[in-house]
Automatic annotation (TrEMBL):
Organismal lineage: Bacteria, Pseudomonadati, Pseudomonadota, Gammaproteobacteria, Oceanospirillales
Protein name: Phospholipase D-like domain-containing protein
CDD domains (alphabetical): PLDc_CLS_1 (cd09110), PLDc_ybhO_like_2 (cd09159)
All copies of domain PLD phosphodiesterase, residue ranges: 108-135
Domain of life: Bacteria
PROSITE patterns the UniProt entry points to: PLD
Taxonomic source organism: Marinospirillum alkalitolerans
Pfam families per record: PLDc_2 (PF13091)
Length: 374
Protein backbone atom coordinates (compact mmCIF):
# COMPACT_ATOMS: atom_id res chain seq x y z
CA UNK A 1 0.00 0.00 0.00
CA UNK A 2 1.44 3.35 -1.01
CA UNK A 3 1.90 5.86 1.78
CA UNK A 4 -0.01 8.96 0.72
CA UNK A 5 -3.11 10.96 1.36
CA UNK A 6 -6.38 9.15 0.74
CA UNK A 7 -8.36 9.43 -2.47
CA UNK A 8 -11.15 11.99 -2.17
CA UNK A 9 -14.44 11.83 -4.14
CA UNK A 10 -16.34 14.75 -5.68
CA UNK A 11 -13.45 16.85 -6.91
CA UNK A 12 -13.69 19.50 -9.62
CA UNK A 13 -10.67 19.98 -11.90
CA UNK A 14 -10.03 22.61 -14.54
CA UNK A 15 -6.96 22.42 -16.78
CA UNK A 16 -5.66 25.83 -17.82
CA UNK A 17 -3.01 25.98 -20.53
CA UNK A 18 -0.55 28.85 -20.87
CA UNK A 19 0.51 31.34 -18.21
CA UNK A 20 -1.19 34.19 -20.07
CA UNK A 21 -4.45 32.41 -19.18
CA UNK A 22 -3.82 31.05 -15.68
CA UNK A 23 -1.96 34.06 -14.23
CA UNK A 24 -5.03 36.33 -14.67
CA UNK A 25 -7.32 33.65 -13.18
CA UNK A 26 -5.05 33.36 -10.16
CA UNK A 27 -4.89 37.11 -9.66
CA UNK A 28 -8.68 37.35 -9.92
CA UNK A 29 -9.08 34.71 -7.20
CA UNK A 30 -6.47 36.48 -5.05
CA UNK A 31 -8.44 39.72 -5.39
CA UNK A 32 -11.56 37.91 -4.16
CA UNK A 33 -9.83 36.25 -1.16
CA UNK A 34 -11.32 37.03 2.24
CA UNK A 35 -9.53 34.79 4.76
CA UNK A 36 -6.21 33.20 3.82
CA UNK A 37 -3.81 32.85 0.90
CA UNK A 38 -1.04 30.24 0.85
CA UNK A 39 1.60 30.56 -1.85
CA UNK A 40 4.50 28.11 -2.18
CA UNK A 41 6.98 28.59 -5.02
CA UNK A 42 10.41 27.47 -6.14
CA UNK A 43 11.24 29.95 -8.91
CA UNK A 44 10.45 33.61 -8.35
CA UNK A 45 12.34 36.35 -10.19
CA UNK A 46 11.68 40.07 -10.12
CA UNK A 47 10.06 41.44 -13.27
CA UNK A 48 6.68 42.37 -14.69
CA UNK A 49 4.96 39.18 -13.53
CA UNK A 50 6.32 39.26 -10.00
CA UNK A 51 5.61 42.97 -9.63
CA UNK A 52 1.92 42.36 -10.36
CA UNK A 53 1.80 39.54 -7.82
CA UNK A 54 3.56 41.58 -5.14
CA UNK A 55 0.93 44.28 -5.57
CA UNK A 56 -1.92 41.77 -5.44
CA UNK A 57 -0.62 39.96 -2.35
CA UNK A 58 0.12 43.25 -0.58
CA UNK A 59 -3.40 44.49 -1.28
CA UNK A 60 -4.90 41.25 0.04
CA UNK A 61 -2.89 41.44 3.24
CA UNK A 62 -3.80 45.07 3.79
CA UNK A 63 -7.54 44.28 3.58
CA UNK A 64 -7.17 41.66 6.31
CA UNK A 65 -6.39 38.43 4.47
CA UNK A 66 -3.72 36.29 6.10
CA UNK A 67 -1.07 35.80 3.41
CA UNK A 68 1.73 33.23 3.75
CA UNK A 69 4.53 33.02 1.18
CA UNK A 70 7.03 30.16 1.21
CA UNK A 71 9.97 30.55 -1.17
CA UNK A 72 13.08 28.49 -1.81
CA UNK A 73 16.52 29.80 -0.87
CA UNK A 74 17.97 28.99 -4.30
CA UNK A 75 14.97 29.48 -6.57
CA UNK A 76 14.25 32.93 -5.12
CA UNK A 77 17.79 34.28 -5.27
CA UNK A 78 16.69 36.78 -7.98
CA UNK A 79 13.71 37.99 -5.98
CA UNK A 80 14.57 41.62 -5.21
CA UNK A 81 15.00 42.62 -1.54
CA UNK A 82 12.85 45.68 -2.20
CA UNK A 83 9.89 43.52 -3.20
CA UNK A 84 10.36 41.24 -0.21
CA UNK A 85 10.37 44.32 2.01
CA UNK A 86 7.19 45.60 0.35
CA UNK A 87 5.41 42.34 1.14
CA UNK A 88 6.60 42.29 4.73
CA UNK A 89 5.54 45.90 5.23
CA UNK A 90 2.07 44.98 3.98
CA UNK A 91 1.89 42.17 6.56
CA UNK A 92 2.68 39.16 4.39
CA UNK A 93 4.39 36.35 6.30
CA UNK A 94 7.46 35.18 4.33
CA UNK A 95 9.59 32.14 5.05
CA UNK A 96 12.61 30.96 3.07
CA UNK A 97 13.20 27.23 2.78
CA UNK A 98 16.80 26.09 3.23
CA UNK A 99 18.74 29.34 2.71
CA UNK A 100 21.99 28.80 0.84
CA UNK A 101 24.84 27.80 3.13
CA UNK A 102 28.30 27.77 1.59
CA UNK A 103 29.79 26.02 4.62
CA UNK A 104 27.69 22.89 4.06
CA UNK A 105 27.53 22.53 0.29
CA UNK A 106 25.72 19.18 0.24
CA UNK A 107 22.86 20.67 2.25
CA UNK A 108 22.20 23.09 -0.63
CA UNK A 109 21.07 20.21 -2.85
CA UNK A 110 17.79 19.89 -0.93
CA UNK A 111 15.31 22.33 -2.46
CA UNK A 112 11.59 23.00 -2.09
CA UNK A 113 10.38 22.58 -5.66
CA UNK A 114 6.65 22.59 -4.88
CA UNK A 115 4.20 25.02 -6.48
CA UNK A 116 0.90 25.87 -4.83
CA UNK A 117 -1.58 28.73 -4.63
CA UNK A 118 -4.41 28.15 -2.15
CA UNK A 119 -7.21 30.63 -1.54
CA UNK A 120 -9.65 30.56 1.40
CA UNK A 121 -9.41 26.75 1.57
CA UNK A 122 -11.82 26.70 -1.37
CA UNK A 123 -9.54 26.87 -4.43
CA UNK A 124 -6.08 25.53 -5.17
CA UNK A 125 -3.83 25.91 -8.19
CA UNK A 126 -0.96 23.49 -8.79
CA UNK A 127 1.43 22.84 -11.66
CA UNK A 128 4.97 23.63 -12.70
CA UNK A 129 4.59 27.40 -12.66
CA UNK A 130 6.70 30.03 -10.95
CA UNK A 131 6.68 33.81 -11.05
CA UNK A 132 8.97 35.06 -13.81
CA UNK A 133 8.68 36.81 -17.15
CA UNK A 134 9.80 33.81 -19.23
CA UNK A 135 6.30 32.38 -18.85
CA UNK A 136 4.74 35.30 -20.74
CA UNK A 137 7.45 36.28 -23.25
CA UNK A 138 5.72 36.52 -26.65
CA UNK A 139 6.39 33.63 -29.06
CA UNK A 140 8.91 31.94 -26.73
CA UNK A 141 6.85 31.69 -23.52
CA UNK A 142 7.54 28.47 -21.64
CA UNK A 143 4.85 25.84 -22.28
CA UNK A 144 3.09 25.31 -18.96
CA UNK A 145 -0.22 24.17 -17.49
CA UNK A 146 -1.98 24.85 -14.21
CA UNK A 147 -4.68 22.74 -12.59
CA UNK A 148 -7.44 24.59 -10.72
CA UNK A 149 -8.94 22.41 -7.98
CA UNK A 150 -12.11 22.63 -5.93
CA UNK A 151 -13.09 20.01 -3.39
CA UNK A 152 -11.59 18.32 -0.34
CA UNK A 153 -8.20 17.92 -2.08
CA UNK A 154 -7.75 21.62 -1.30
CA UNK A 155 -7.58 20.65 2.37
CA UNK A 156 -4.90 18.07 1.53
CA UNK A 157 -2.89 20.83 -0.15
CA UNK A 158 -3.22 22.96 3.00
CA UNK A 159 -1.84 20.05 5.02
CA UNK A 160 1.08 19.74 2.59
CA UNK A 161 1.82 23.44 2.95
CA UNK A 162 1.83 23.19 6.75
CA UNK A 163 4.39 20.39 6.54
CA UNK A 164 6.65 22.55 4.35
CA UNK A 165 6.42 25.71 6.47
CA UNK A 166 9.73 25.92 8.38
CA UNK A 167 8.43 27.41 11.63
CA UNK A 168 5.78 26.29 14.10
CA UNK A 169 3.09 26.92 15.15
CA UNK A 170 0.95 28.24 12.31
CA UNK A 171 -2.10 30.43 12.62
CA UNK A 172 -5.48 28.82 13.16
CA UNK A 173 -6.53 30.09 9.72
CA UNK A 174 -4.26 27.45 8.21
CA UNK A 175 -6.24 24.70 9.92
CA UNK A 176 -9.83 25.00 8.63
CA UNK A 177 -12.57 23.51 10.75
CA UNK A 178 -15.20 21.41 8.97
CA UNK A 179 -17.69 21.64 7.47
CA UNK A 180 -16.37 23.46 4.42
CA UNK A 181 -19.09 24.34 1.96
CA UNK A 182 -17.73 23.24 -1.40
CA UNK A 183 -19.17 24.83 -4.53
CA UNK A 184 -21.80 23.02 -6.56
CA UNK A 185 -19.27 22.38 -9.34
CA UNK A 186 -17.33 20.12 -6.98
CA UNK A 187 -20.26 18.45 -5.24
CA UNK A 188 -21.84 17.51 -8.57
CA UNK A 189 -18.71 15.71 -9.71
CA UNK A 190 -17.89 12.04 -9.23
CA UNK A 191 -14.19 12.58 -9.93
CA UNK A 192 -11.54 11.40 -7.50
CA UNK A 193 -8.28 13.04 -6.50
CA UNK A 194 -5.48 12.99 -3.99
CA UNK A 195 -2.21 14.78 -3.24
CA UNK A 196 1.03 12.80 -3.49
CA UNK A 197 4.40 14.03 -2.33
CA UNK A 198 8.06 13.20 -2.73
CA UNK A 199 11.15 13.96 -0.71
CA UNK A 200 14.27 11.88 -1.07
CA UNK A 201 15.01 8.60 -2.76
CA UNK A 202 12.96 6.39 -0.43
CA UNK A 203 9.98 8.63 0.34
CA UNK A 204 8.75 9.30 -3.15
CA UNK A 205 5.08 8.45 -3.46
CA UNK A 206 4.94 10.38 -6.77
CA UNK A 207 7.42 8.03 -8.42
CA UNK A 208 5.96 4.85 -6.92
CA UNK A 209 2.44 5.83 -7.94
CA UNK A 210 3.53 6.61 -11.51
CA UNK A 211 5.27 3.25 -11.81
CA UNK A 212 2.16 1.43 -10.63
CA UNK A 213 -0.01 3.29 -13.15
CA UNK A 214 2.41 2.52 -16.00
CA UNK A 215 2.31 -1.18 -15.18
CA UNK A 216 -1.52 -1.09 -15.04
CA UNK A 217 -2.07 0.96 -18.22
CA UNK A 218 -4.09 -0.76 -20.92
CA UNK A 219 -4.32 1.76 -23.75
CA UNK A 220 -2.08 4.81 -23.58
CA UNK A 221 0.64 6.56 -21.62
CA UNK A 222 1.69 10.18 -22.14
CA UNK A 223 4.44 11.80 -20.07
CA UNK A 224 5.65 15.39 -20.38
CA UNK A 225 8.71 16.48 -18.43
CA UNK A 226 11.26 19.24 -19.02
CA UNK A 227 14.15 17.28 -17.51
CA UNK A 228 14.34 13.63 -18.52
CA UNK A 229 16.96 11.62 -16.66
CA UNK A 230 14.90 8.58 -15.66
CA UNK A 231 15.87 5.79 -13.33
CA UNK A 232 16.43 2.28 -14.68
CA UNK A 233 13.19 1.16 -13.05
CA UNK A 234 11.17 3.85 -14.83
CA UNK A 235 12.79 3.07 -18.18
CA UNK A 236 12.06 -0.62 -17.73
CA UNK A 237 8.41 0.13 -16.93
CA UNK A 238 8.00 2.26 -20.07
CA UNK A 239 9.68 -0.38 -22.23
CA UNK A 240 7.52 -3.19 -20.85
CA UNK A 241 4.37 -1.15 -21.43
CA UNK A 242 5.31 -0.39 -25.03
CA UNK A 243 6.20 -4.03 -25.71
CA UNK A 244 2.83 -5.06 -24.28
CA UNK A 245 1.05 -2.95 -26.88
CA UNK A 246 0.34 0.18 -24.85
CA UNK A 247 0.76 3.41 -26.83
CA UNK A 248 3.61 5.16 -24.97
CA UNK A 249 4.57 8.77 -25.75
CA UNK A 250 7.25 10.98 -24.18
CA UNK A 251 6.96 14.74 -24.74
CA UNK A 252 10.37 16.27 -24.02
CA UNK A 253 12.18 19.56 -24.69
CA UNK A 254 13.93 20.15 -27.99
CA UNK A 255 16.95 22.42 -28.51
CA UNK A 256 15.29 25.24 -26.55
CA UNK A 257 16.01 24.27 -22.95
CA UNK A 258 17.48 26.00 -19.93
CA UNK A 259 19.56 22.94 -19.03
CA UNK A 260 21.16 21.42 -22.17
CA UNK A 261 23.31 19.08 -20.07
CA UNK A 262 20.26 17.28 -18.67
CA UNK A 263 18.79 16.99 -22.18
CA UNK A 264 21.99 15.39 -23.48
CA UNK A 265 22.13 13.05 -20.48
CA UNK A 266 18.57 11.91 -21.13
CA UNK A 267 19.07 11.44 -24.87
CA UNK A 268 21.43 8.54 -24.28
CA UNK A 269 18.36 6.50 -23.34
CA UNK A 270 16.55 7.21 -26.62
CA UNK A 271 17.85 4.16 -28.57
CA UNK A 272 16.59 1.53 -26.12
CA UNK A 273 13.25 3.31 -25.70
CA UNK A 274 12.75 3.74 -29.44
CA UNK A 275 13.67 0.12 -30.07
CA UNK A 276 10.95 -0.98 -27.67
CA UNK A 277 8.33 1.12 -29.46
CA UNK A 278 8.24 4.19 -27.21
CA UNK A 279 7.41 7.29 -29.25
CA UNK A 280 9.55 10.32 -28.40
CA UNK A 281 8.60 13.89 -29.31
CA UNK A 282 10.76 16.97 -28.77
CA UNK A 283 8.97 20.32 -28.57
CA UNK A 284 10.70 22.71 -30.95
CA UNK A 285 9.43 26.33 -30.94
CA UNK A 286 9.78 26.91 -27.18
CA UNK A 287 10.76 25.34 -23.90
CA UNK A 288 8.54 22.66 -22.40
CA UNK A 289 8.25 23.18 -18.63
CA UNK A 290 5.01 21.34 -17.84
CA UNK A 291 5.09 18.17 -15.73
CA UNK A 292 2.10 16.08 -16.81
CA UNK A 293 1.46 12.32 -16.81
CA UNK A 294 -1.52 10.49 -18.29
CA UNK A 295 -2.11 6.73 -18.02
CA UNK A 296 -5.51 5.85 -19.48
CA UNK A 297 -7.83 7.98 -17.27
CA UNK A 298 -5.33 8.61 -14.45
CA UNK A 299 -3.61 12.01 -14.40
CA UNK A 300 -0.76 13.48 -12.38
CA UNK A 301 0.11 17.20 -12.59
CA UNK A 302 2.44 19.11 -10.33
CA UNK A 303 6.03 20.02 -9.62
CA UNK A 304 7.97 16.77 -10.04
CA UNK A 305 10.50 16.37 -12.85
CA UNK A 306 12.02 13.02 -13.80
CA UNK A 307 15.60 14.00 -13.09
CA UNK A 308 18.11 13.45 -10.30
CA UNK A 309 16.95 16.40 -8.21
CA UNK A 310 13.24 15.76 -8.58
CA UNK A 311 13.53 12.10 -7.63
CA UNK A 312 16.30 12.30 -5.02
CA UNK A 313 16.55 15.63 -3.19
CA UNK A 314 13.67 18.03 -3.83
CA UNK A 315 10.44 18.45 -1.94
CA UNK A 316 7.81 17.73 -4.60
CA UNK A 317 4.02 17.52 -4.72
CA UNK A 318 1.56 16.48 -7.44
CA UNK A 319 -2.18 16.32 -7.81
CA UNK A 320 -3.44 12.94 -8.94
CA UNK A 321 -6.88 12.53 -10.48
CA UNK A 322 -9.11 9.79 -11.82
CA UNK A 323 -11.38 11.76 -14.08
CA UNK A 324 -12.56 10.96 -17.61
CA UNK A 325 -13.25 14.59 -18.54
CA UNK A 326 -9.86 15.78 -17.31
CA UNK A 327 -8.15 12.87 -19.09
CA UNK A 328 -9.73 14.04 -22.35
CA UNK A 329 -8.50 17.60 -21.76
CA UNK A 330 -5.00 16.40 -20.96
CA UNK A 331 -4.88 14.14 -24.01
CA UNK A 332 -6.02 17.06 -26.19
CA UNK A 333 -3.24 19.19 -24.68
CA UNK A 334 -0.68 16.52 -25.56
CA UNK A 335 -2.03 16.20 -29.10
CA UNK A 336 -1.79 19.97 -29.58
CA UNK A 337 1.79 20.03 -28.30
CA UNK A 338 2.63 17.17 -30.65
CA UNK A 339 1.80 19.40 -33.61
CA UNK A 340 4.73 21.63 -32.63
CA UNK A 341 7.10 18.76 -31.93
CA UNK A 342 9.71 16.78 -33.81
CA UNK A 343 9.01 13.04 -33.76
CA UNK A 344 12.30 11.23 -33.22
CA UNK A 345 12.92 8.67 -35.96
CA UNK A 346 15.00 5.61 -35.04
CA UNK A 347 17.08 5.53 -38.22
CA UNK A 348 17.70 9.27 -38.29
CA UNK A 349 18.63 9.23 -34.62
CA UNK A 350 21.30 6.61 -35.28
CA UNK A 351 22.80 8.99 -37.86
CA UNK A 352 23.02 11.97 -35.49
CA UNK A 353 26.31 13.94 -35.54
CA UNK A 354 29.30 12.63 -33.62
CA UNK A 355 29.52 15.73 -31.46
CA UNK A 356 26.04 15.07 -30.11
CA UNK A 357 27.02 11.49 -29.24
CA UNK A 358 30.07 12.77 -27.36
CA UNK A 359 27.97 15.18 -25.30
CA UNK A 360 25.46 12.44 -24.54
CA UNK A 361 28.22 10.15 -23.26
CA UNK A 362 29.92 12.90 -21.26
CA UNK A 363 26.80 14.19 -19.52
CA UNK A 364 25.53 10.66 -19.09
CA UNK A 365 28.77 9.83 -17.29
CA UNK A 366 28.31 12.89 -15.06
CA UNK A 367 24.76 11.79 -14.32
CA UNK A 368 25.91 8.31 -13.37
CA UNK A 369 28.45 9.83 -10.99
CA UNK A 370 25.76 11.97 -9.38
CA UNK A 371 23.63 8.89 -8.77
CA UNK A 372 26.51 6.94 -7.22
CA UNK A 373 27.57 9.91 -5.10
CA UNK A 374 24.16 10.13 -3.56
Amino acid sequence: MLKGLAWQPQQHFELISEAVDFYPRMLTDIAAAREVILLELYLIESGLVTQAWVEALSAASQRGVQVYLLIDGFGARRFAPEERAQLKTAGVMIQEFNPLNWRQLSQNLVRNHRKLLLIDHQIAYVGGFGLADMWITPETAWLEVALRIQGSCVTQWAQTFRQSWPSRPLAAALCPHPPIHWPAAALASDNEGRVVTGWGLYRHTIKLSLLRQIYQAQEQIWIATPYFAPSRRLRRALIQAAQAGVSVHLLLPGPKTDHPAIRFAGQRFYPELLKAGVRILELEPRFLHAKVSLCDQWISIGSCNFDYWGLRWNLEANQEARCAALAQQVEAWFQQAALDSCWIDTQLWQQRPWWIKIQERFWGWIGALVQRWH
